[in-house]
Amino acid sequence: MASSVYKKGSSGDVNFNMTPMIDCTFQLIIFFILASQTANEAYAKHIRPARPHESQALAVKDYQAKNRIVINVVSAGALMDEKRGPTEFDFARAAHYKVGHKEFEVGNMDSLIELIEQKKVEAKKDGDYIEGDKSNEFFIEIRADERISWQDVAPVIRAGVAAGVRKMNITALTAQK
Amino acid sequence: MALSTKKIQGDQTIHYDPPRKQRKAAAEPRSMQPPLTPMIDVTFQLLLFFLLTCEFRESEGNIPGTLPAKGNIVQEVQQTPPPDPVQIRLRLVADRVAAYEMTGVPVVISSPAELLEHLKQRQDQLGSADVPIVIFPSADVPWQYVVEAFNAAVHARFTKIGFAEQIL
């Protein structure tokens, strides 16, 4: 009778085989590390970039590049509470322009021009770009919500021109493979 | 009857191991196993962190372009008109829906795919990438359509692409 309870060689402890669980957990962690994108303060949230037909957008190689200024054009509708039901009109107008943590009113172009000029001077001083070197030129990156009207995006281009910037990149979603 | 008591670490009580257990312990080779509990704890913490903070975004990229020299854009276009530029005018045809009108194309172009085809044809006819493309969006056209026009011009291998504002 006793032999059926105490099996020979068994201490009576129950051990779980943890190896498959640890394997799966590590696989999941590796997946999340690779799939998630690192947070970048230059890229504002709540922006829906355009997805053009047969997109020619080139994947950004260096998200930390300092020879550029990313100007986010944030839609007013995207910032509104969904329960309030933002209308097409709300999505069509820009709430503000955002550069890093700084927000600029749509009408306040002088401050934006000043900031672009300041960034350009800083980048030049730090050696992040060389004047006249076309391969390493200072540029503005326009990251606008696709729903915003042209009249609210055009001032950003005008500000870039006024600040003496000669290169402009437009953010769009890359082509689906 | 000998009582076997539960072992508690640091406990000062005298423990009794039954002879069966003593014989077994003597016979079995001792196996070394590092404590896995802290590692599993940390691993789960990491997993939880990534699950909560992970944000999936679609892959973004840049369509490269240039800007005119410092000065008034409108003046620059008017004072030094480029030779026979191809103009693409954008205007709303329905609620938040825009269409394209292109120099030399008698019909209204309704889709970006069509616009791309027309631009490719024009590129083949001209045989030069230096012909300027000027995009004229009306004020209320969504940015999406402007990007489509710009993207189509880049795709058709035009190199001089500019924006202009319609003066009413």
Topology:
The complex is a heterodimer of chains A (177) and B (168).
Chain A: H1 2-5, H2 19-35, E1 58-59, E2 68-75, H3 76-79, H4 88-92, E3 94-99, E4 102-104, H5 109-125, E5 139-144, H6 150-162, E6 167-173
Parallel strand pairs in A: 2-5, 5-6
Antiparallel strand pairs in A: 2-3, 3-4
Chain B: H1 19-27, H2 37-53, E1 60-66, H3 73-79, E2 86-94, E3 97-102, H4 112-126, E4 133-137, H5 143-155, E5 161-163
Parallel strand pairs in B: 2-4, 4-5
Antiparallel strand pairs in B: 2-3
Helix pairs in contact in B: 4-5
Explain what this protein looks like in three dimensions.
The complex is a heterodimer of chains A (177) and B (168). Chain A has a domain at 68-170: Nucleotidyltransferase, domain 5 (2-Layer Sandwich), CATH 3.30.420.270. Helix content of chain A is 34%, strand content 18%. Chain A contains six helices and six strands. Chain A has helices at residues 2-5, 19-35, 76-79, 88-92, 109-125, 150-162; strands at 58-59, 68-75, 94-99, 102-104, 139-144, 167-173. Chain A has a five-stranded mixed beta sheet with strand order 4-3-2-5-6. The termini of chain A are far apart. Chain B has 168 residues and is α/β, with parallel strands linked by helices. Chain B has a domain at 92-163. Chain B has a four-stranded mixed beta sheet. Chain B is rod-shaped. Classes of the chains: A alpha/beta (177), B alpha/beta (168). Strand 6 of chain A pairs antiparallel with strand 1 of chain B.
